[in-house]
Amino acid sequence: MRDVVEIGPGKLARRGYHLRDVALVPSRRTREMSDVSTAWQLDAYQFAIPCVAHPSDATMSPASAVRLGGLGGLGVLNVEGLWCRYAEPEPILDELAALGEDTPATRRLQEVYAEPIKPELIVERVQQMRDGNETVAVRVSPQHTLALAPVILDAGIDILVIQGTLVSAEHVSTVEESLNLKEFIADLDLPVIVGGCTNYQTALHLMRTGAAGVIIGIGGDEWSTTDTVLGIRVPMATAIADAAEARRAYLDETGGRYVHLIADGDLRTSGDIAKAMGCGADAVMLGEPLSRCEDAPANGAWWHSSASHPVLPRGAFGAAEAPLAAMDTVLYGPSTDPDGCLNLFGGLRRSMAKCGYRDLKEFQRVGLVLDPGCH
Questions:
Q1: Count of the separate structural domains present in the chain
Q2: Long-range CB contacts (< 8 A, 24+ apart) of 319-326?
Q3: What is the rounded CA–CA span in Å between residue 121 and residue 118?
C-alpha cells in the first residue's frame, strides 16, 4: 500500500524516503567475511566491487579511470569534460583546486567548459585508457550522443554511458533531431548504461530500450542544486525501490532479461552503499567520495558535470579539501575514520556478513526498517 498524503483539495503527494531514513535488519545468521563476495558483472565485464565512478573531471582522468579499474571498479571518463577539450587540462584542474569557498567558481567553470570538444582528443583519451588494459567506459550526454557517437564508437570503448540529470526513453522535440534510445541501442553491439531516472515508469521504459544498466537518481548530494533550480528531488531509497519493482516487471515481461540498477546520489559512506544495495541496487555511482582520494585529478575539489552548464548550472562547487587517503584505502581500507568514509567496500562486505548474505543478489533481499528519527 502506497503512503500517500493529501497536501490540499484534489492534490495528493506520495511520501518518499532517503537512505538515511532506512536501516538494515540482520537475518537469523551471520557469515564469515571471507565467505562474502562483492563481485558484480555487467554483460561480459566482471568487477570485484559494485563501484562505478561518477564521470566528473574532479574524479576521473584517463589515469584515475584505469586506477579504479585495476582496483576492481569501473572508471568512466566524461568525453564532454576537460580531458576532451584541452590537450593539457592539468593546469586548469590545478587552478580550480586552488579556488576558495568565496570565489565565484561557477562562472569560472562555465568559462573553461566553453572550449569546444575535440574529437581527436576523445580518440587519444580512449587509447590512453585502452593502454591501461582495463574496461574502457565513457560518458556522453543525451544531447550530444548522436553527434559524438561515431567518434566514441570508432575509438574502441567497451561500455557506453548515456547520462543526463534526467533521461527518458524518447526525447520529444520539434526543433532538432531527437535521440530515440531504443533505436540507438538496438544498433550497437556493446552494453549501454542510461540514466538518471527517479521513478517506476521511467525506469521500466529505459529498460525496454535494451540498456544493460539504468542509473537511478540525479546525483543528488549536498552539492547538487537540481532540487533548488528545477524543484526535482526524489529520495534515493524510494527511487531505488521503485526501479527494483520495475526490474521485476521487466523480468516477467521479457522472460528473464535482467537490467542492472546503478544508484547515483546520497552516497557518502559504506553504510549508505549497503543501504542502497539493500533497497535493490546492483552497483553504486560514487562522485564526491572519490574526489577525496589522493590521486583525484582536482586535488580534492568536487563538482557535478552539470555544474558547468552555460545557462542553468545545477551544482555548487566544493572547494578542495585535504585528501583522505589513496584510492585503494578509500575503497578497501584500512580505515582510520570511524564515520564510514574509508574502506567503503570493506564496510559493505562486513554489512553483508553481519546480515548473513553471501553475495550482492542475496543481499538485495535484506530486511529494512524505517527509522526517520535517526538523523
A1: 1
A2: 319/99, 319/100, 319/101, 319/103, 319/105, 320/97, 320/98, 320/99, 321/292, 323/292, 323/293, 323/294, 323/296, 323/299, 324/292, 324/293, 324/294, 325/292, 325/293, 325/294, 326/293, 326/294, 326/295
A3: 5
Q: How far is CA 373 from CA 255, 266, 370, in A?
A: 41, 17, 9
For the record, the C-alpha cell of 190 comes out as: 556493446
Residue 283's nearest CA partner among 345, 327, 192 is 345
Q: Residue 55: give its domain's CATH number.
A: 3.20.20.70
- Give the containing element (helix H, strand E) for 7: strand 4-8
Nearest-angstrom CA–CA distance, 264 and 52: 9
Residue-wise over 89-105: b if at least 16 C-beta within 10 A, else e?
Answer: beebbeebbebeeeeeb
Written as nine digits, the cell of 239 is 527511487
Closest Cα partner for 316 from 234, 219, 194? 219
**Beta strands 367-370; 22-25: pairing state:** antiparallel
Residues facing 6 on adjacent strands: 12
3-class DSSP state of 14: strand
Task: State the virtual CA torsion across 344, 350, 355, 356 in degrees, nearest 10.
Answer: 130
Q: Is residue 11 part of a domain?
A: no
Note the pTM of the prediction, 2 decimals: 0.94
**How far apart, in whole angstroms, are the C-alpha atoms of residue 282 and residue 67?**
22
> What is the full per-residue pLDDT of the chain (375 aa) written as tens digits?
578 888 888 898 888 999 999 999 998 899 999 999 999 999 999 999 999 999 999 999 999 999 999 999 999 999 999 999 999 999 999 999 998 777 788 899 999 999 999 999 999 999 999 999 999 999 999 989 999 999 999 999 999 999 987 787 666 565 666 788 999 999 999 999 999 899 999 999 999 999 999 999 987 777 777 888 888 888 999 999 999 999 999 999 999 999 999 999 889 999 999 999 999 999 999 999 999 999 899 999 999 888 888 888 888 888 888 888 999 999 999 999 899 999 999 999 999 999 999 999 999 999 999 987 655
Kindly state whether residue 360 falls inside one of the protein's structural domains. yes
Residue 6 located in a structural domain: no
